[in-house]
Amino acid sequence: MPVASELAAWLREALHDPGPFDLVRLAGGNSNETLLLRSPRARRVLRRPPPAAISPTAHDMAREHRVLVALHHAGVPVPEPLALCTDPAVASRPVLVMEHVGGVVLRDRYPPGYPPGAGTARAIGEAVIDALAGAHLVDWRGSGLDGFGRPAGFLERQIPRWRAQYERYQVRDLPAFDAVGHWLEEHRPPDAPAALLHGDFHLDNCLLTPRPPIRVLALIDWEMATIGDPMLDVGLFLAFWGPDRPTRPAWTTMQAVSRVAGAPSRTELAERYAAATGRDVTHLDYYLTLAFWKLAAIVEGAYANHVAGRVDSAYARGLAEDVPRLLEEAAGFTGLGI
């Protein structure tokens, strides 16, 4: 797609590149649009809010730019941020331009260069948990991120926040949601030292080498980042990891490359993370429960859109079963017998 003249002029100056430029939409990107920015000189990535942004916080390009600058300077594998534009005279939506990293995203199958089997699954899990540990070890205050979030009371705020999200869109009675939420309130671990957390961490947000040796080239999509309890990242990543999930889990393709015999268990990867960071992972089950429960609250909102007739697709219809399955997986760590 073509680039508007005002934006093209800004790109020429900001990138020291005479162009011409064009844009190609890329898959993924979560809540923000992610496009390939091409010129005869280079391939870069351009990020911007969607046309109908709902949450200013979730689509704040300046916030994502700030965290990428801090992480890049700290040596964490992230795309190098190249330019930020928040001038509405240049572009109707803020624009963040960053380095293009040529890695692969893993979902439900290995790319051609990856040999099948437990060895590959282990290499993936260890590479990703090591990269996550490195991000959590960043001195966020020393990296210019003081004031980036509200770490005090972070974990305590999670249950009221996501319960309110669920109740705002509730269209059916799901007793397991209330039961698990009550368990989470009653079993909240002690506050842990705050760190920078990604906020939506899973394999889809990692770019890995196209072939062995397997390592993480870049951690991407930092729009949900904040300062708080980093075990939320660990919990979400490990919630969808490994061969020890139920036979019929929710979202069967999520991190399905890890569902092979001999892949490292959640406990193994959590212990590897603990060894790298010095953090306590004895409450891992709490964070696994919270990950599934929080997702149930978010996804029920999407299902409510389907019930209201605003969205009609096979995916939306499938949420009728996926949300109860998320809650079932959450309850599996609590001993509630749901």
Write structural notes for this entry.
- The protein has 2 domains: 5-99, Phosphorylase Kinase, domain 1; 118-331, Aminoglycoside phosphotransferase (APH), C-terminal lobe (Aminoglycoside 3'-phosphotransferase, Chain: A, domain 2).
- The chain contains 9 helices and 9 strands.
- It has helices at 5-15, 61-73, 118-136, 154-169, 175-186, 231-239, 266-277, 284-307, 314-331; strands at 22-25, 33-38, 43-48, 81-85, 95-99, 195-197, 206-208, 216-219, 226-228.
- Helix 8 packs antiparallel against helix 9.
- The longest helix has 24 residues, at 284-307.
- The protein is globular, with a radius of gyration of 20 Å.
Name the features.
338 residues, alpha+beta, Phosphorylase Kinase, domain 1, Aminoglycoside 3'-phosphotransferase, Chain: A, domain 2, 2 domains, five-stranded antiparallel sheet, two-stranded antiparallel ribbon, globular
Shape: globular
> Number of domains in the coordinates?
2
The largest sheet, given as strand count, sense and whether it forms a barrel, is: 5 strands, antiparallel
CATH architecture of the largest domain: Alpha-Beta Complex
Number of helices: 9
* Radius of gyration, in angstroms, nearest whole number: 20 Å
How many extended strands?
Answer: 9
Task: Enter the CATH topology name of the largest domain.
Answer: Aminoglycoside 3'-phosphotransferase, Chain: A, domain 2
CA-CA gap between termini: 50 Å
- Sheet/helix structural class: alpha+beta
Q: Which whole number gives the mean pLDDT?
A: 92
Beta fraction of the residues? 5-15%
Order of helices and strands: HEEEHEEHHHEEEEHHHH
Q: What level of helicity do the residues show?
A: 25-40%
Q: Mind telling me the CATH superfamily name of the largest domain?
A: Aminoglycoside phosphotransferase (APH), C-terminal lobe
- Which CATH class of the largest domain is shown? Alpha Beta
Assembly state of the chains shown:
single chain
Low-confidence stretches: 53-57
- As laid out across the biggest beta sheet, the strand order is 1-2-3-5-4
